[in-house]
Amino acid sequence: MTVAPIRRSRTAGPQPATHDAIVVGARVAGAATAMLLARAGLRVLLLDRARPGADTLSTHALMRGGVLQLRRWGLLDAIVDAGTPPIRRTIIHYGDDAEAVDISAKAGVDALYNPRRTLLDPLLVEAATAAGAEVRFGADVRAIHRDGSGRVTGVAYRDRDGRTRSAHAAITIGADGPRSLIARTVGARNHMTGHGSSAMIYGYWSRLPVDGDEWFYRPGVAAGLIPTNGEHVGVWVGTATTRFRAELDGDLETIFGRLLRQAAPDLAARIPIARHDGRLRGHLGAAGYMRQPWGAGWALVGDAGYLKDPITAHGITDALRDAELLARAITAPVGDAAGELAAYQRTRDELSRRMFAITDAVASYAWDLPRLRDLLIAQSREMSREALAIAALDHEAIAA
């Protein structure tokens, strides 16, 4: 598919320089999409209202499919060279029982990684810039432009100096997160909506010995250890959003300690001897969804189009996967543009539907430990299936 011809906006006055694609949002999904489109030779404008390198809420986890993509895009070495520890074992605690799962070599990947977002996001933005994308931070998108047929033709945004500017392109891509302005403005509808959601509290500790990722589960509560950069370990606790709202009160430290003692008593005893770096942060949670991800002159990628609860730590991998699927649809050989974007949706949905249902069941916390174990085994199967599908993509046209 080639991008559709530029059409004039209803906006009065002379039109600014045009682009082949505008990407709104420079986090993982948006920066990766911009990078791949620019590598394919498109004129790309990448906009984000935040400052470069700003941190964000994240599980940090890269699953096998995401590691595979970063490696073939030529970016994994930078993740490794920055001191991101390789994860070669995951320990899952079901109450008092523990199961260790070694990360086997599969699809060319023999270790997983949990990079800080202050490393991963700038790395993708730098790669997009190196490929020729124009990147503007401090650009707060306020509206979209349409032509006389209703097709989206670009965006209006406020720059860091407070001036309102316009940009026009053949396709406008919303990678602007769960509260996506692009999704709201075009009226993208959910065709799948979850019910469960996790409220989580997390922070970073150093001097906390770990042996890979660790996940802790007891009825109604969960916790985890995620080794990341700077010899830090992300520690999180979670419970159902409904329970958090109804039963828990007090400051974050009090609630964190209470939930950690319930989920992982042994870990709660280890925490005081480690060093807490920074402060705790909370996330109340929201039900997941899968939205219609394309229309006339627009597309959605990342959390703007598909959101799962973070309890299964698969969001970054989803974002990288869908960035590639969308970029491949946009840069496919000349053909039916709508058909290519419809294929993007079908592939995304087919690879996501079962994982979405599994995640929603885990995030409900309405499980006993045997049921949870079955869910996590099913999750592992789906992640393996996804990694094989990603490995099978013909990526030569948009790889490094």
Your description of this structure?
The chain is an alpha/beta fold and 400 residues long. The chain folds into two domains: 282 residues, FAD/NAD(P)-binding domain, CATH 3.50.50.60; 86 residues, D-Amino Acid Oxidase, Chain A, domain 2 (2-Layer Sandwich). 34% of the residues lie in helices and 27% in strands. Strands 1, 2, 5, 6, 7, 8, 16 and 17 form an eight-stranded mixed β-sheet that branches. A seven-stranded mixed β-sheet has the order 4-3-11-12-13-10-14. Strands 9-15-18 form a three-stranded antiparallel β-sheet, with no helix packed on it. β3 and β4 form a beta hairpin. α1 packs parallel to α4. The two termini are 20 Å apart.
Helical content stands at 25-40%
Number of domains: 2
Percent strand: 25-35%
Gyration radius, rounded:
21 Å
The CATH first-level class of the largest domain comes to Alpha Beta
CATH topology title of the largest domain:
FAD/NAD(P)-binding domain
CATH architecture of the largest domain: 3-Layer(bba) Sandwich
Order of secondary-structure elements: EHEHHEEHEEEEHEEEEEHHHEEEEEHHH
Structural class: alpha/beta
Question: Shape from CA axes?
Answer: globular
Low-confidence stretches: 1-15, 396-400
Q: Can you tell me the CATH superfamily of the largest domain?
A: FAD/NAD(P)-binding domain
Q: Please summarize the sheet with the most strands.
A: 8 strands, mixed
